[in-house]
Structure of Adenosylmethionine-8-amino-7-oxononanoate aminotransferase:
Amino acid sequence: MLTTLSLDRRHVWHPFTQAQTAPEPIAITSAKGIRLYAEDGREFLDLISSWWVNIHGHAHPTIAAAIARQAHTLEQVIFAGFTHQPAAQLAHELVQRLPVGLTRVFFSDDGSTAVEVALKMALQYWRNHGEAQRTRFLAFEGGYHGDTVGAMSAGKGCGFFDTYGSLLFEVGLLPFPETWDGDTAVAAKEQAALAQLETYLAEQGDTLAAVIMEPLVQGSAGMRMCRPEFLQALAARLREAGILLIFDEVMTGFGRTGALFASIKAQVTPDIICLSKGLTAGFLPMSVTVTSEAIYAAFLGETFDRALVHGHSFTANPLGCAASLASLQVFDDEKTLAKLPQIETWQRQGLATLAGHPLVQRMRVMGTIAAFDVVAADAGYTSAIGAQLKAFFHERGLLLRPLGNVVYVLPPYCVTEAELKQAYVVIADGLAQLAVG
Ligand SMILES: *Cc1c(COP(=O)(O)O)cnc(C)c1O
């Protein structure tokens, strides 16, 4: 019989991977809680929540049972002209939990499509409003919004997509006022970002449709964090200028920053919000783009050209909706939000064990996310340090996947104090090994 790895090697193309130089993939057979079990008998602590999607731990029985029940009842139905209880109920439950005013839920399949929908919504909102000249978007340096063409355009500030430049539309970039523990220059960085916004407003204010950003934490750029105060100032200025604000909470949603949503933590209500990764607790691909009644109303009319021309084969897949509803149930049953400050404390204690290390810079924590930069001559996503540390962490049974020279820990919420302690011991060992050379 051919092994998983031999079949994989022959036929599979992996994401974000240079297959020629990457190590062999690790074949995982099962997972439970924070643990992954490999075919070859190894075990891993999943400290990045499997690319930031898992929140309650793997194979959570409540969610698995809800999906199984739904699969035996209604697995899928066309969502144009039809609806079903799991979708309607999920829309209702999300609206109850989102910032007040976000009341209309559009379903799609993944974070990238949630962003595509947000961009199309913003553009057409203005068009339907008689301001068809508002076609430009602003985004942030370092921002990442997914890999489809519109999402790559909005995320061109992350620098991954230069190869596809000819496909992308123009987006204006604002500096991201990144900050960390003990940073004394944050106010100046925020002023610079707001000043750049003023320049765009002065030069192209009446052609701007929306600003898109990852609130509080830029994930792929290296867990770069900003202050809630900055989001408040930005949102106030955009409201005054009459420009829409899109929050891409694909990563920050569902508890990551310590509150259910970063927008709640920052006390800023965007006009449009994108949610995905944690939505189904990491069980199934699904996303939503949620907006206000005012924006929804602009799409009503007698003609089809005013409608949002968007929809996917699997829009509002009932299995995904059932998983999401079960996940919200787990949030209630396990009082998950109340556990998050505890995780934040453990993360701070873990980082504190690295304080003063000559290779450790810019320590930062936001809710359940902790990160620091490793001093490197080749700082950035392709820094050799990332691959070196990743291999070391794998050897020691940790799934950690540094973003270049940025090491971060983003665990599922079932993580224990002992598991995080163990992680920081291994991280310190990894740094010691780098120091030796
Ligand atoms: C992961 C991510 C996306 C893209 O989501 P996919 O499900 O990978 O398409 C978009 N925005 C942010 C902030 C993300 O972290």
About this structure: The first helix runs from residue 4 to 11. The pocket of pyridoxal-5'-phosphate is lined by residues 110-112, 115, 144-146, 214, 219-220, 248, 250-251, 276-277 (CB under 6 Å). The longest strand covers residues 102-108.
